[in-house]
Amino acid sequence: MRKTITSLLLILTTSVCTFAGNTTNDSLTVYLQPCDTKPTLNLYGRFKDVAKEAAGAYSTSMSGNSRLLRYDYSDKDEPLTLLLSDEGDGRFSLVADMNFNNDFSDDYKYFVLYKQLPPSQKLFNLEPQPLKFTTDHGNKIFRWFSPSIYIKEDSANLLESINVIPSFNRIYYSNFEYEENTYSILIYEDYFNNSKSIMSYKVIDSKDIKLSETGIPEFPPTMESLSTDMPTAIHGNKVLHVGNTDLSNMTCGITISDIPGEDCDSIPLTGFYAPLFKKKSVEGQTISLNKMRGHYVLIDFWGTWCKPCISVIPELRDIHKKYPQLEIISVAVEQSPNIDYGFTPAPLKKAIKELQMDWHNIQDKLTEGPEQISEKYKITAYPTTVLIDTEGKIIYRKSSILAMDSLKKFWKSRSDIEINSL
């Protein structure tokens, strides 16, 4: 697909809140290009269970702790098949056969903690993946597919309580230039069962772009998408807001300003000032993030109920031993009631002692509501690792058991961070 993008730069003067005081906003209007033509899709219903005897080639992937589900999304293609499996450690996995080769081993697998699921009938949405569709003209085009999950109240078995419904995204994209840099923006129009949902977006620096066969920027399904009411950071020291998206005229408004300072509301994303907190530690000390200014701070969000979290503690111990000047705060999120994690979590103080967590430890209680640190940082997956620089800005954030390994690579890639002087 040939990209024909035009962007128009409009400069407006507006008072905004920054570390330095008042400044001006730069406002751009970008003209959007649809990534595909809309095929005829069956957007009603949900994925339905398939018995093992009717699973065909997929039956070899099934076990006693798994479910096979199918969805007829198009009259011209075979059904989309996915596998739900209980992982036995408080998580379940979901994988869809996105290339229709009767094999799940070469497809992206989502891992979800049962604890992450919202109350009954509320949707939990996973990151999108590209899926091919056939148009009325017989052409293969891409549409973004993201599984959406909700749970039923009437099932005692956690895996059996999960329903998966189809969510398809229509995508628009554009390029825009800002201070001699070129960026690409993707706008998602999300659908759930034929009902329009929120719009979301991603911004990609052109130097990092790899084009797919559709001619649009390609990115992994783990890359975070943001609701259009949430900003993102670009250019190292700028905040980007998306607004005034008018799909009837194929335009999107963008506002770019300085990163907000401490006198503004903090945003728990990379490039922004970290939300401040002041809490008593498990050891009885008062932990103030503001008083740690001038130090690098590593925050690890975990739980005694989370086996993947526990598995990375030895790496945290190694980091603590190698960089004693690095402030480490482990925030232990309280376990949700009435959830069977498949084992009995140890009491927090006992776990801290047994795991030799010789650094700051805070218990994050569910009763604290918006004052929960995990709420302030919008944590939805565990473990999540956040690195804050000496100025109080978040410079790294990742939710994965591989977060520590990625963090080490991140440190090596940043010449401005002197590891030995932490």
List the helices and strands and how they pair.
Layout: E1 7-11, E2 26-31, E3 33-34, E4 48-50, E5 66-71, E6 80-86, E7 91-96, E8 109-113, E9 124-125, E10 129-134, E11 140-145, E12 148-151, E13 162-165, E14 167-178, E15 181-192, E16 195-205, E17 226-227, E18 232-234, E19 238-246, E20 251-258, E21 278-280, E22 286-288, E23 297-302, H1 307-311, H2 313-322, E24 327-333, H3 348-354, E25 360-364, H4 373-376, E26 384-388, E27 394-399, H5 403-413
Parallel strand pairs: 23-24, 24-25
Antiparallel strand pairs: 1-2, 2-20, 3-14, 4-5, 5-6, 6-7, 7-8, 9-12, 10-11, 11-14, 12-13, 14-15, 15-16, 16-17, 18-19, 19-20, 21-22, 23-26, 26-27
Number of domains: 3
| Mean pLDDT over the full residue set | 76
Q: What ranges have pLDDT less than 50 throughout 5 or more consecutive residues? A: 1-22, 37-44, 192-196
The SS-based structural class is mainly beta
Largest sheet: 7 strands, antiparallel
Tell me the CATH superfamily of the largest domain: Glutaredoxin
Helix count? 5
Task: Quote the beta fraction.
Answer: 35-45%
Known CATH architecture of the largest domain: 3-Layer(aba) Sandwich
How many strands appear in the DSSP assignment?
27
Q: So what's the CATH class of the largest domain?
A: Alpha Beta
Straight-line distance between termini:
48 Å
Tell me the radius of gyration.
Answer: 23 Å
Approximate helicity band: under 10%
Overall geometric form: globular
In CATH, the topology of the largest domain is named Glutaredoxin
